[in-house]
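Annex B. Sample input.
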Amino acid sequence: MKLLAKVAGSALAVVLLVTVMSAPATAVETAGTEHPQPHIMPGLVTVVFEDDVNLTSLRADFGRANFAMPSLDAILDDYQVTSARAVFNDTERPDKSSGVADFTRFYELKFPEDVDLNAFIKDLMSNPNVRLAEPVWALPLEIDPNDPNWTNQYWVSSLNMNLRGAWDLETGSDQIIIGLVDSGVGYRHPDLEDNIWVNPGEDLDGDGVVYDPDDLNGVDDDGNGVVDDLIGYDFFTGFSGISPHPQEDGSGADTDPIDFSGHGTHCAGIAAASTNNNINVAGMAGGWYGGHRSFGGIRIMCLRVGGTATDGNGYVNSNNCGTAIQYAARNGAKIVSCSWGSSSTATMQAAMTLCDSAGVTVTHAAGNDNCNCPDYMDFDPPSGTFDVLSVASVNSADIKAGSSNYGVWVDVSAFGEGIVSTYTFGASHTNTVANLSGTSMAAPMVAGLAGLIRSAMPSLTKLQVDSLIENTADDIYAVNPSYDQLLGSGRIDAFQALQGLANAKFEADVTEGDAPLTVNFSDLSPYSPSAWDWTFGTGDVSTDQNPTYVYNEAGIYDVSLIVDDSASIGPGEEYLKNYIWVRADTVRGDSIVASKGSKVEIPYYLNNTSLIDEIQFNFDMTNSMGITFDSFSIEGLRTEYFDYVQANVTVANQLYGILFRSSPSGGSQYLPIDTGAIIKLHFNVSPIASSGVLVLDTLKLGSKECRFTSVWGDFYPVNIPGKIVIPSCGRGDFNCDGDIAIDDLVSIVNYMFNGGPAPDPFYIADVDGSGGIPDIADLVYLVNYMFNSGPPPPA
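Annex B, continued. Sample output.
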């Protein structure tokens, strides 16, 4: 299982590090050692226990492992077994009739590296409790958009494969997951990050952020047996007999599947780098960013199973590969890409059988030894228990790559020479692009095509997808006469694979706005379907070709369209996640009555219907009344854990801006969906202030917009301004003549009891300043003041 990337010259890790660092912004040719061969790791053995063995009795005392089975424990003691580790994350045994392996039976035993491995395996196989014992292997790794480097990607512009024609039909759907089983993935690479799979069961705050530290809580939230698998998992448990490179993580399985060597990142970019995002390169099924229809591509599940060793070569751990493949099949991947050589191991056979039963297309690099030398993964086994697409490599002229393996066991060929794609390297995870060659590059290209087909028609079976890829390939034997029928059915043709498939496409005239939001949907399906089934994310459906739908409630809505085309092998489907954003957000300021010479505060209340992580709060207080802004506070409010920066935007006009940013140290990265005060503004009212009304508006102010940023994007909530009122007449002065007299008392009585005219401004009838509507208490207060030496009405 080689990291099947062809490199020429000196050590892969060292030369890539030096070359890429010297020119990090450009594609680089890479060099490396002769292809390493698979080798057995000393000190490790995989066993599969018989069905009647009680594995709950496993113990590890005093540096020895035992299972409370005397005959087996005697062997483990003889060979100084120090630990036994379950290979798979399973606790339940399947029904035997299901055909799925019992993953609970697989264990990895660890013992001193100088112990005779062959003798140990022989003794284990003679024990009645053991069904199978085998070595653990280190398997070598095989290696018109606006994206700046796409013109260096001949396979994108090639008329032979016609990928750009295929993109007219399908660019990739974020509903389709590809399990990238490799050296990890540089998931922070700017050309990959938007297409990284985020595990919804572990995304605690629902923000979709890639490898979000806020979601790391040490709990298996989705109950799949893996803790904090936010974007996949680092299953790599290390090597034996050779050490991981000191700059790479070889300390054991963990939550972070970051790539150190670049191989996995390169493969991920071939399959699903973001396309048309004006960054680096294009991917086979990377979606289409920018423009009127902007959608993400297939999602990359990051699964690390190896890396670079101290000999400078890349390897994967065979047991870790089996675990990762099983994880991918169990967690929604419909495609698995394997760019490494292989050796027949029980763990991978069990995982591949599960992929077959789960309908997962598996692509596998044929190898870079220029020989007719298959391994078990390249054959459809006689038992028919699993099937993979074995991929050979050709150059831009469709001629077999010099290093590519070949044989009747190859299923299909793809471009693999001089492939420019995403790359990352070193402990600093420097992101760039690189030019690599090998069947490692051809395998994810086929996986990307499987992603396009799955995106167009998710209901297709594995057999249908695999058959489409093989049966629509172009015959290349005229230019490969020495390899007749040894390069599979030919070189993949993306357009031919997609042409004629039912293909659902649609768009909406608006995708966000305030409730109620009227949305007009348009069917864009290319092959004139005869029936349409729409879902709008609310439970409502439609069979109209171009429906109009009104969203009355705030929320984020998925929309789907399934079209029927009798000429196709099945329905075409498009699912757009989080497509319609309906808001009901408001920012409301209080209105207060201020007396001259006083200090006042005005709270602003936010009703938000999505999570907020940044607020650009601006307010305009242009006035000649003698009111000045003093300060603001958030203590005790919904935003009290936010960081903030205060800026006086324009002094002359008294336009102010305050920027809030969420602070994870406060216990939550986002402002939750709720209603309540987010800021209090403090003002000074001059003793000689003019009477009138100051409106504190939070309108857009040129380049300083009052903007709220949610997990779904920027928006501008409905604004209800706050007001500071400096009265021109005091409380109780009903006729506003500057004096409280009997006529004011009569006017208030007439208003309260005889239907007389209302006071203007209204607050003057609130004689006691209680803030309520005028009542008997106000009348009593006024009488006491006028006739019983009571206190004057408050300002």
